[in-house]
Design goal:
Layout (H helix, E strand, L loop, with lengths): L1 H11 L1 H9 L6 H24 L3 H24 L8 E4 L5 H21 L8 H23 L4 H17 L7 H18 L3 H4 L9 H8 L23 E6 L5 H16 L7 E6 L5 H10 L5 E5 L1 H8 L5 E6 L2 E6 L6 H9 L2
Helix pairs in contact: 1-3, 1-6, 1-7, 2-3, 2-11, 3-7, 3-8, 4-5, 6-7, 7-8, 11-12
Length: 351
């Protein structure tokens, strides 16, 4: 049940789990999408195998190996100073790396006990399997309502698929190789169907925004009545050449994820950080700006703040908006989901 609850929790907040994996800079952005989904699919498979009690010793050994791998990863996270949630249960139940290591240690001890003392020739009846999955679904729904005050319908679809997998795994014909293969593939296919990687569909580089108004913010204002007047500084300061301008609202969760994505791309590819500018709307709650960097774990790049009305008009009230700007012209525009690591890297590397 723990493995399945952990997987469904990650599924509900898959964007955050993707960014947690990517934030370490180990995998490229596109690979991080797949790693996130295979991790939760593997948890579903382990949960189903343990509940059905089929291939008992192999399932327990794989569970032990899975937990030990995560202990190694979480130890690394702790050693590099990460104290944020490791997303073991998504954003429903935050665990820092140390807490998660302790949790995994307890599970390893329990698995060793199960490995040694549980008879391998016992299999639960179908009605008991159904009761276990229903109890798991009730716990998931309770956690969703308690944490998010809403129920994710796609998560319920995933639980329904897993109920079908568990029910089939409890029946006598489970031993057929093609049935076993289908039951193993079902969680993987379901995961990718219900939450496909962004790179499958979000490939455009022309997100809508008010380009004319944005370009006005780059131009110094000159008093028409006095041609000798000193031009005022532009609202958005940019160097000549190639730059990235990102429009973020400090309290926007997707903006925080986008900032973490950009920051990791810059750090992973050793890009010129002086060519990154964050644009925020001016708000009275100034503490929100510092909170934005803390939550997103973004580096502090160049920053400017413009009045809220102009910010809303430029972004057309749809943010984040990330612009690739070359010599005052917009070369490409992205939202959160279609930010492309290769395009961004090539754009700044070929400056």
């Amino acid at each position: 049940m723990m493995f399945i609850i952990s997987a469904v929790s990650k599924f509900i907040t898959i964007d955050s789990f993707e960014m947690y994996i990517f934030s370490f800079g180990i995998f490229p952005l596109g690979v991080s999408f797949y790693v996130a989904r295979f991790v939760l699919a593997f948890e579903l498979i382990l949960g189903a195998a343990l509940i059905s009690h089929r291939n008992h010793r192999f399932a327990v050994l794989m569970s032990l190996l899975f937990l030990l791998c995560f202990v190694v990863f979480l130890t690394y996270a702790h050693l590099v100073g990460r104290t944020d949630s490791c997303h073991c249960f998504g954003e429903m139940l935050p665990f820092d790396p140390v807490q998660s290591i302790l949790k995994n240690a307890v599970l390893v001890v329990l698995l060793l006990f199960i490995y040694k003392f549980t008879p391998a020739d016992w299999f639960p009846r179908w009605w008991l399997v159904v009761l276990i999955y229903l109890a798991t679904a009730v716990l998931v729904v309770y956690c969703m309502v308690h944490s998010f005050y809403a129920i994710d319908k796609l998560a319920l679809v995933m639980m329904l698929v897993m109920l079908g997998v568990g029910l089939l795994a409890s029946l006598p014909f489970y031993g057929k190789w093609y049935v076993t293969t289908a039951l193993i593939l079902a969680p993987i296919v379901t995961t990718f169907i219900l939450t496909p990687p962004d790179s499958w569909f979000y490939t455009n580089t022309d997100e809508r925004f008010d380009e004319e108004l944005f370009l006005q913010q780059l131009q110094p204002a000159v008093d028409a009545a006095d041609t000798l007047a000193v031009p005022a500084s532009p609202a958005i300061q940019l160097q000549e050449g190639r730059n990235i301008v990102a429009f973020f609202s400090p309290k926007c969760g997707i903006c925080q994820l986008a900032a973490g994505k950009i920051s990791t791309i810059v750090a992973r590819n050793d890009l010129d950080s002086t060519r990154i500018t964050y644009v925020f709307p001016k708000i009275s709650d100034t503490a929100s700006y510092a909170k934005f960097y803390e939550v997103s774990r973004s580096s502090h790049f160049s920053e400017t703040r413009i009045d809220k009305e102009t910010f809303i008009k430029i972004t057309r009230a749809s943010f984040p908006i990330v612009l690739l700007v070359e010599d005052g012209d917009v070369a490409a525009s992205f939202a959160y989901r279609n930010i492309n690591e290769k395009l961004v890297t090539d754009f700044l590397d070929n400056r």
